[in-house]
Amino acid sequence: MVSRVIPVDPFDLVIFGGTGDLARRKILPGLYRRFVAGQMPADSRIIGAARSEMDQAGYRQFVAEALREFIPDLRRAEGLSDFLGTIDYVAIDAQGDGGWAELAGRTRKDVVRAFYFSVAPALFGDLAERLHQHGITDASSRVVVEKPFGRDLATARDLNAVLARHFDETQIYRIDHYLGKETVQNLMAVRFANILFEPLWNSQFIDHVQITVAETVGVGGRGSYYDRSGAMRDMVQNHLMQLLCLIAMEPPYRFDPDAVRDEKLKVIRALDPVRPEDIVRGQYLANGQPGYLEDVENPASRTESYIALKVCISNWRWKGTPFYLRTGKRLRARTSEIAITFREPPHSIFEGEEGWKENVLVIRLQPNEGMNLRVMIKEPGPGGMRLTEVPLDMSFADALGETGADIPDAYERLIMDVIRGNQTLFMRGDEVEAAWAWADPVIEGWEARDDRPRGYDPGTSGPEDALMLLHRDGRRWREIRE
């Protein structure tokens, strides 16, 4: 299968925080790969903007070093010099006047102009105000903002209000890289481009859904930030919420940004409050390496590095089907997956046959993106009707050949969508606020109860209490493995 590369229009992309970690690891390598693939026009320009005093040559060297570090197999080095020719730099003072006149002179009026706020949310207002004051943006400009989109409903509203003072909602792209993953988008294709699953996609046929995002690393150098956020704010309220919405949403009337986001918003608003007994929080312990308390340098911390929740949706499609969400640090394996478990057949005609297992559709987001459907078949050979379970497996790398093995990174796709002006995979302001309106009472509840996270050993599946969350419902978590 040949992958089609559809070039975007020429653009100027200004990366505020252009010397930061996200720019080095994701944004600049992603843009380089799109340039080499022929999707980014050669007359486009990427302008780094940061506090560091640096000239164009210095920043180009910085970019080249980042590419060599984060694209180890830099095979097409012949395209590197051409890509670096698109790079520029302006030293900028986000809270003052330094550099803004120069930036205004570097951006063009006759191309798509996008501004990536890869900085702390506290600077969003300053950047928006100065872009407006210096006439650098207009009604066709686009602004990309990174999470966190607030830390509760009040701060999310304040942040939306700050952006709304200078940009229309159609200009704001709130980026969640999970929505740029190939498998996440294929979830929509599987549901809405095939008749096979949609008739079964409801509580009559689906027993439960598990969403797992497990990491083997600890909080690392993010200790001070993470201890103010925790797994609920850092992962559940955004990443896992978006995955839940894509599974549970009704078919939109068309594949249109607002139509898709309208349906996701309906799911969030239909979420039931989470009961205290349906929440398990944990912290990884020290075991040959520092534990969570040591990593965040706060021995009194009650912030969770692991959380599991049972979530219910009160609408006609999903009433009676629970969604189990879990995410954590220092777990057994690095994996992200969605597992849809279907109900047992209402009647088995195979008398005496034991060991029936559920049909499970597993959507793997990482590693080895793909889908796997487990079904029951007759075991080969004589001796009667014996049932066995087999997978119908579609690994993208295997099914699509070289195309599947070279799946674009989420940031590559999302940045190109910004240039196209396609907001389908970006969160809308009311969607962000609705998610916080659901999450805030959950967080306030355990704070009021003075709940302490349960300890768990690194390299396991999390706290023992999380097992009971499903056991009492007669279910069990899927094994965490790569």
UniProtKB/TrEMBL annotation:
Pathway: Carbohydrate degradation; pentose phosphate pathway; D-ribulose 5-phosphate from D-glucose 6-phosphate (oxidative stage): step 1/3. This is Glucose-6-phosphate 1-dehydrogenase. Belongs to the glucose-6-phosphate dehydrogenase family. Its EC number is 1.1.1.49. Catalyzes the oxidation of glucose 6-phosphate to 6-phosphogluconolactone. The keyword Oxidoreductase applies. It comes from the Bacteria. The active site is at H239 (proton acceptor). Keywords: Carbohydrate metabolism, Glucose metabolism, NADP, Oxidoreductase. NADP(+) binds at G17, G18, T19, G20, D21, L22, A23, R24, R51, K147. Residues 14-186 form the Glucose-6-phosphate dehydrogenase NAD-binding domain. It catalyses: D-glucose 6-phosphate + NADP(+) = 6-phospho-D-glucono-1,5-lactone + NADPH + H(+). InterPro entries: G6P_DH, G6P_DH_AS, G6P_DH_C, G6P_DH_NAD-bd, NAD(P)-bd_dom_sf. Residues 188-478 form the Glucose-6-phosphate dehydrogenase C-terminal domain. The gene is zwf. Substrate binds at H177, K181, E215, D234, K329. GO terms for molecular function: glucose-6-phosphate dehydrogenase activity.
